[in-house]
Amino acid sequence: MKVTVLGAGAWGTAFGQVLADAGNDVTMWAKEPDIVDAIEGSHRNPVRLPSVERLPDAMRATGDRGEAMRSADVVVVAIAAQFARVALEPFRSLVPDDAVVVSLMKGIERGTDKRMDEVVRETLGLPEDRFVAISGPNLSREIADRQPAATVVACADMDVARKVARACTTDYFRAFVSSDVIGVEMCGSLKNVVALAVGMVRGAGFGENTAAMVETRGLAELASLGSAAGADARTFSGLAGVGDLIATCGSSLSRNYTFGANLGKGMSVDEATRVSNGVAEGVPTTAAVVGLGRRLGVETPLASAMDRVLREGISCSQMLSALFGEDIVEE
Ligand SMILES: NC(=O)C1=CN([C@@H]2O[C@H](COP(=O)(O)OP(=O)(O)OC[C@H]3O[C@@H](n4cnc5c(N)ncnc54)[C@H](OP(=O)(O)O)[C@@H]3O)[C@@H](O)[C@H]2O)C=CC1
Ligand SMILES: O=C(CO)COP(=O)(O)O
């Protein structure tokens, strides 16, 4: 198939390599001319994925939107979530009528509190059977090294999910299918907020018990909010839910975990942003999760506590106190 990836960041590029390894012709679209030139000219992305010495020959790049979209069967969106709407707007009239659009993004739009399935479908004018969400424990650096990994490919139309899953299956990358787009989106977005908090307690020097407590309460919050949004509860215990929480909350390869760890060590939000190696989606998504919780009538103690960390600069101990009220409650 002909696949176009919008956004040559760390994950867009690593996933482009998966698609090329699976036998597709892959075109990367990037707005930065330096990145386009590097991929096209020397098969490298030294800015976003320097660990890969040479990207597959089946991967090329362009900065031209029309050329990127020409006869694409599948369009993959891998842009920082808060910029998805503005970046996709110029593509609205260019996406081929029968192309499937896949989102790799893990975030909720600040201001509208919308998931990426909502943002992408709204911006490109797509019916639900042409939208696919992909999410799972997929740290880009490990997948770029071709370490074994799996993901969840979700679409309202299971035949479309299977078609996309086949297109990204290799001997090291395995795709499971699901029809629970909302669940997969909620898991991918909320685990980033949990990873910020787990990273923060680790950075502050706390051990396994504290990290497990925060991660487990984060999973409970993700499940309550996800269910209220219409997700299938089974998704939370799968790869996109628990699987991604384990990977993200336990790895310094995660930008969200590392951002949180830097806060825990005493950096300000500005300092942690400056040293972040790519987008930490949990940062803008935290406020959106609080907004979504308010709208859906679901309490979000972890996101609310992290929101205070990010806006008011409260300490790790204050964040942990804010996480639990005074009352004894059922788990
Ligand atoms: N990295 C990972 O391990 C994984 C990431 N994800 C998700 O994938 C998404 C992308 O992540 P990742 O590739 O790692 O992020 P990076 O920080 O590496 O790259 C961000 C990408 O967004 C692009 N971008 C930002 N603003 C704009 C804009 N206004 N117009 C067009 N493009 C823009 C950047 O383009 P430019 O470089 O030209 O500025 C870049 O391609 C995120 O939602 C992330 O949560 C999901 C699974 C794994
Ligand atoms: O989503 C990811 C792993 O599944 C990547 O996490 P970060 O965005 O925190 O790096």
From TrEMBL:
The keyword Mitochondrion does not apply. It is an enzyme of class 1 (oxidoreductase). NADPH binds at W11, K31, K106, S140, R255, V279, E281. GO terms for molecular function: glycerol-3-phosphate dehydrogenase (NAD+) activity; glycerol-3-phosphate dehydrogenase (NADP+) activity; NAD binding. It comes from the Bacteria. Catalyzes the reduction of the glycolytic intermediate dihydroxyacetone phosphate (DHAP) to sn-glycerol 3-phosphate (G3P), the key precursor for phospholipid synthesis. This is Glycerol-3-phosphate dehydrogenase [NAD(P)+]. It comes from Bifidobacterium minimum.
